[in-house]
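Researcher: Let's do a round of design. I'm pasting the structure tokens now; please hold your answer until I've finished.
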């Protein structure tokens, strides 16, 4: 009794750990997608609901905005936006002394002018001599920023030029690249399960062994073959048919393996009874195997679709990066900038790209586990 209780407790603890390890980063990613990009760069998502201390750089107005009062030249303004909610606690006039002055404390510059900054960002800059600077003076501030949520990241991702076309391009790639291997492998899996021919077991062993071959090893040789074949028919290798065939080839081994395990687990007596009644392999496949294998087909469809939808490498190699062919993951990579300076939109892009895969998963989830575990145990 104690042993069973201990086993269950350990199992539940492991499951709970797995769930937390999965949900926590996803929740953090979701919260981060609504955060201001400046806060994303300076603090973690776990600080979202509390006030953060941030360092920022602003510039004052130029000489064009000065006026003369009581014999002194004055430039007046506000460093912060009106609705920012930020409160300045200290500031500096050089990068080496970011927090040298407290709020309402006057800072004396090299030209003997004085500047004073208040908590709400208002500043007053006075000088005995006329201001002549064409660029505003840099002010380094340390401020307290309240929790802030925004939809700006989603607006940038959703309404950026080319995102809609990239979404359609990805569907154009993903749907055929999922259906084609599913059709081919369903016949292949049936043959490996219920048709007797020489070398069947050896062929299945080769398929299992090919699962460990890294995809990256095959990309360039495969593209070279496509170029040679395409040259014969005057068709470029970098096209939708090319990427469909590439995804089909990379998915054949795993798809065949999963479908074969399920089809092999179907009752042997039922197949033999159909043969006795005169059913051909074609009849058995269409009228018995297909209806009973819906869970397996749904599971394989989900796995293959998720892999193709989230793929970047194959799409980059087998498609031209033009508006009519660029896929969603490649377009999101473009939005990051050449040096990754817009990395904050990755959080938003992740959830935008999740919409279709999540819809398909929830629509077929009742078949998913049943299709994966079928054939794994006997009984």
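Researcher: That's everything. Go ahead.
Model: Designed sequence:
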């Amino acid at each position: 009794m104690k042993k069973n209780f201990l086993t269950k407790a350990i199992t539940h603890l492991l499951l709970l750990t797995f769930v937390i390890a999965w949900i926590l980063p996803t929740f953090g990613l979701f919260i981060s997608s609504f955060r201001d990009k400046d806060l994303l760069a300076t603090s973690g998502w776990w600080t979202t609901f509390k006030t953060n201390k941030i360092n920022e750089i602003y510039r004052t107005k130029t000489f064009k905005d000065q006026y003369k009062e009581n014999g002194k030249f004055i430039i007046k303004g506000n460093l912060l936006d009106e609705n920012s909610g930020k409160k300045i606690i200290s500031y500096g006039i050089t990068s080496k002394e970011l927090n040298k002055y407290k709020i309402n404390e006057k800072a004396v510059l090299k030209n003997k002018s004085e500047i004073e900054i208040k908590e709400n960002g208002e500043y007053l800059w006075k000088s005995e001599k006329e201001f002549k600077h064409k660029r505003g003076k840099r002010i380094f501030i340390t401020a307290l920023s309240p929790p802030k949520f925004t939809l700006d990241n989603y607006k940038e991702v959703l309404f950026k030029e080319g995102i809609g076309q990239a979404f359609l391009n990805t569907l154009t790639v993903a749907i055929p690249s999922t259906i084609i291997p599913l059709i081919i492998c369903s016949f292949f899996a049936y043959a490996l399960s219920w048709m007797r021919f020489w070398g069947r077991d050896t062929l299945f062993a080769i398929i299992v062994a090919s699962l460990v071959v890294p995809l990256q090893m095959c990309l360039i040789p495969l593209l070279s073959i496509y170029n040679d074949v395409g040259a014969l028919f005057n068709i470029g290798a970098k096209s939708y048919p090319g990427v469909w065939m590439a995804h089909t080839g990379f998915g054949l081994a795993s798809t065949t393996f999963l479908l074969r395990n399920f089809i092999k687990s179907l009752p042997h007596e039922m197949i033999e009874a159909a043969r006795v009644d005169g059913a051909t392999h074609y009849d058995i496949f269409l009228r018995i195997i297909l209806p009973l294998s819906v869970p397996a087909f749904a599971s394989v469809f989900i796995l293959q679709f998720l892999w193709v939808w989230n793929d970047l490498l194959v799409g980059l190699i087998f498609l031209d990066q033009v508006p009519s062919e660029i896929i969603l993951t490649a377009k999101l990579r473009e939005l990051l900038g050449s040096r990754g300076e817009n990395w904050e939109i990755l959080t938003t892009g992740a959830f935008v790209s999740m919409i279709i895969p999540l819809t398909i998963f929830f629509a077929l989830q009742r078949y998913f586990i049943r299709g994966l575990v079928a054939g794994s145990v006997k009984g």
